Amino acid sequence: MAIREIVLMGDPVLRREADEVTVFDDELRAVVRDMFETMYHADGIGLAAPQIGLSKRIIVVDPRRPEEEGGGESERVAVINPVVTEASRETYKQSEGCLSIPGLEEIVERPVAVRVEGKDPDGNVVVIEAEDLFGRALQHEIDHVDGILFLDRVSALKRRMLLKKWRKLEAERAAEAQEV
Ligand code: NI
Question: What is the separation, in whole angstroms, between the first and last Cα of the chain?
């Protein structure tokens, strides 16, 4: 197992439509293990393969952070070639962040509940009915394999403000890197 480097917004891999997975082998399962490890290490609740620089349709989600009291892994899932096949008409707004866009957060409106279909890492069909945070995390990660970021789902005005803040954060990171 290995913790992978998480790529940041600006890397073109995050904007590509990722490739379907066609081979369900040990290599795929090793990638999934690394993705879980990387996600937990970064204290995230979801991760998509493009975020580790791999343009494949693979996502992992665990809406319950491991350090939380009683944090079981009952909702921990890895979905290969995930597709939202149904979404509730009812939506709700909640703040979202992204491990590839550290420092930015914004309210995003999404369906409350979704049905997601795909495969598990062994190639078996999986169907997941998810709502609230679990459903939101699945939608956010499935967006990633389509090259979509949460910034694309906020108003143009808010996006401009967020991008301005992002440029400032990037400049700060570049300055820090030079000092080292
Ligand atoms: Ni994200």
Answer: 29
